[in-house]
Structures are given as structure tokens and as C-alpha cells.
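Single-chain item
Fold in C-alpha cell form
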Amino acid sequence: MNLPTILHMTPKGEDEIKHRVYKLDMKKRSLLILLGRPQSIEYLASKTVLLQEEFNATIIALIQDGFVATGSAAANSASAGPAIHIEDDVILSEAKFLLTNFCVDSFGTDSQAFVDTIRSCKSVNDVRHHLNTILAATEKRCPAQIPALHNAIREINATA
């Protein structure tokens, strides 16, 4: 296993942590809990009580089952910046709906300011402008949600 590889929790992993939807065993669940934000495999290995062989098998199972996704540190930092882009001809109402859902899911009761701002958007350019604020807040408050934000942007762009 490549130790500098960065792992992050997927939406499926978040469902398991928040709601125990998939009823994972304690080994897998304990590693998911350590992924409250993206971490390197090296970091996880240093924090777990699992033996190396058991740790490797558990990480591989979490990846294969879709609870965790991988990406190098360089790829993750590159994808956090200008890679987020909304196409010109997306359906504005759908973009606002998907971003509102993302904000409520990610920020919970702290999402109201974001939701109000999204509702006030009158054009795709307005949405793009506020997307930078949403991205910055996501990186700061809940970096594990960055993949979910990318998924929302993909869904928005699919409406074009």
C-alpha cells in the first residue's frame, strides 16, 4: 500500500457513520471514524490498533465496497481549486436545488446563510460566484464533503 495516498470518506461512508445504514463491523467503522477528514494511509496506520495485515485488508475492503475513495495528496489539492466549474448553459433552478441540498447535508443547522445566498442567485454567474464561498467553507469545516461537492457539480453540469 502506498503510504502517502490520501483516503477520504465517500457519501456511502458518511451514511454509515451518521446512521449505521450498512452495519459495518467495528474494524471498518473505526477506520471510517478516523476519516472525519481526508487522511493519508500512513496516518491511519499510526492511529489504529489493527495489525498491519488486518489494517491493509480492512482498507482494501472499505475501498472496494465504496465507503472510502483514494487520491494522492497532489491530486486532492489540485481538485480543490479551479477544477470546480459550472457550465454556462446549466438549468439554474436545478443548480440552486443541488447546491442547497449539498449545503444542508454538509453544514446542517449552519447552512441557512448559504441557502439564502443560493436562493438569491439570478444567474449562473451568481451561482459560480457563491460556489467559491461554499468551496472555501467546505474545505475549512468539513473537508470530507469535498467529493460530495464535486458530485453535486457533476450533476449540475449534466443538466447543460
Notes: The chain has two domains: 6-79, 81-157.
